[in-house]
Structures are given as structure tokens and as C-alpha cells.
Amino acid sequence: MPPCLASKTKKLTDHKTKPNMPVFTIPRIQQGNIKVPSHRLAKIEIDDIEITGYSVAGEETVVAVPQLNVCFDIGKAPDQVISIDNLLLTHGHMDHTAGIAYYLSHRNFSGQTPGTVLAPQELLEPIQQIIDAHGILDGNPIPANLVAVRPGGEYRIKPNIFARAFATPHSRNSVGYTLIEKRKKLKPEYTKLTGPQIVELKKQGIEIDYPLEIPLVTYCGDTEPGDFTKLEFVMNSKILITECTFYTKDHISRAKAGKHTHLNDLPDLMRNSKNQCIVLIHISQRTGIGFARKMLKKVLAAEQLDRIIFLMEHNKRRR
Fold first, then answer.
1. What is this structure's pTM?
2. 37, 84, 151, 196: most buried, per Cβ within 10 A?
3. CA 111 vs CA 88, 127, 198: distances in Å
4. What's the CATH code, domain 55-314?
């Protein structure tokens, strides 16, 4: 268990939880009159940011950040993410997009506003075709707000939160996303001024502050290493969610063929990373997390291991 995790609900070690350290909880299915969720999602809390989801290679990937009102990819549309307004799709593979029509339809059925779906431009037409086909099957049109994204483009999620897309080398036109908080900060030369003095400068039309960007969460989706690792907003993001699908030497060629990340790619990634936590997703069913962590110890330093979390390590069982 990486030192950057401590449980809120279950004591894992004899040490007290350190401040500003991530914690995780394992969801429990409730019986009786309480609705049983469709999925048993993993949940990680890193400071004040909650990451919840399910990700197994070739089966399903859906990762949500509820506080920021964003879901990355949709998997098979677990009911726990239906109320999230913004769905950010990285590419069109079935294990990442299968639930898109259900997500949109169930929002409509529940009386919610149409979901907003961000996706590469080339995916919008086939996505609309899928939505239309399911609308015919269901007998009711399915409303949706489809938004095309291109690398470098931004979409406003909240008044001060923006999703910025970047290119990833996985499938044609695949992208990742960084959620960025934008603020304004007072210029150093004005920090000692009084309130009335600042007001007077504003009246004179003087720019007293400068824009500040804080990258919060980056989600790479399926990808092999690429130029995105040179982007400061990616590598400085507080949380980096990225895949590592393969862990053995005999799977190096498979990783390259499928444009996925292999264990051997992680050392370079970690050297450039200034992320507080790196959440690994997309581990395969054949690879146990215990084995994967054992293999990580062979290629990464202790300080690097301390920053790595496996999303599915915090799910008691796989579906």
C-alpha cells in the first residue's frame, strides 16, 4: 500500500493519517429498501478530490471526479455517474463508450438536463448515429449536447474550471484531458496596497492581477507514451490518471502493437512527473495488482512508488 494513502473507514497501519494525504474508502452494497448500485466502483480521495471508477483492460473503463462534475469515458454507464453533467470521451473503443446511449437516455428518463459529451470531432457523427438508433429502439428521442474537441481546445465545466484536451498516441484522433482551475492573483508590486488604493488603481484601468492556472486532474485514457508528457499542465497536474496495461517482457510487443503503456515506460514518465499522485488504470484481468506492484518495485525508486496508486486496488472485488 503506497504511503500516500490512508483509510477513512478502515485502519490499514498503526500510523496516524498524515494531513493532506489521500485516503480511500471501499463502497459497500446496501440491502433492504436502499437501491443496490449497478457497479461496485473503486473510490480514492486525494486531499479534497474524489476519484471513483472502474477500469479493467478490454472490459470497461469509467473514471469520475464528482466534485468537478466530470466523468472520463463511460464504460457500461454505472448508475453512480448518471447525474454527472459532463462526459469527456478519449476515443471510441467499446470498453470506453458502450454506455453512452444509456447515460444520455437515463438522464432524460430521470428528468435531468441533457448530458454534455465532449469527444474528438471525428467521433461525433457515429455517436449521434448510436444515439438515434437507440432512440428508435426505445421509442423516444434521446437528447444530447455533443461538443467536438481538438488538442489544445478548452471547454468550460464550471465558472473557474476548464477541460483542456491534448493529443494521445493510441487510436486515430484520441485525446486526453486536464481539468484546470483558473484564478487571478494580485501582482507582487501591489500586495502591500490597501483596499482603497487597489480600488483606485482599478478605476484607472490598471491591471493589478495576472492569470493563474492550477492543473488539478489529468486523464490520459488508453495511450502509449507520447508528446503529451512534455506538456507542463499535464506533468504538473496534482493528479495524473494514466494507464499501464502490460507488466512482463513477453508483452512488450503487445503493448507497442496496441499502443498501450508497458511497465518499462514508467521510469521515464516518473522522472518528468511533478504530480502529487499517479493513479494507474487499465490493468488486465490476467495481471494481479500484487504482481503488478511487485514488478513496479523492480523499475521504480521508493519515492516514485510512494506516489503511485492502483485504482482497482481500492475495489474489493471485480465484477
1. 0.85
2. 84
3. 21, 22, 46
4. 3.60.15.10
Structure confidence by residue, pLDDT tens digits, 110-130: 999 999 999 999 999 999 999
Q: 215: closest CA among 256, 181, 252? A: 181
Beta strands 154-158 and 145-149, pairing class: unpaired
* pLDDT per position as a tens digit, 45-76: 999 999 999 999 999 999 999 999 999 999 99
Distance between CA atoms of 22 and 12, rounded to whole angstroms? 13
Residue 308 grid cell: 503511485
pLDDT below 50 — which residues of the chain?
A: 6-17, 26, 28-29, 316-319
Rounded-to-integer distance, Cα 52 and Cα 54, Å: 7
Alpha helices in the chain (DSSP H): 94-97, 100-109, 121-138, 195-203, 232-235, 252-258, 266-272, 289-299, 302-305
Cell of 35: 437501491
Which of the 8 DSSP states describes residue 65?
A: E
What contacts 104, CB < 8 A, 6 or more positions away? 114, 115, 117, 131, 142, 143, 144
Q: Collapsing DSSP states into helix, strand and coil, what is residue 171?
A: coil
Domain boundaries, given as residue ranges, for the chain: 55-314
CA–CA dist 90, 46 (Å, integer):
23
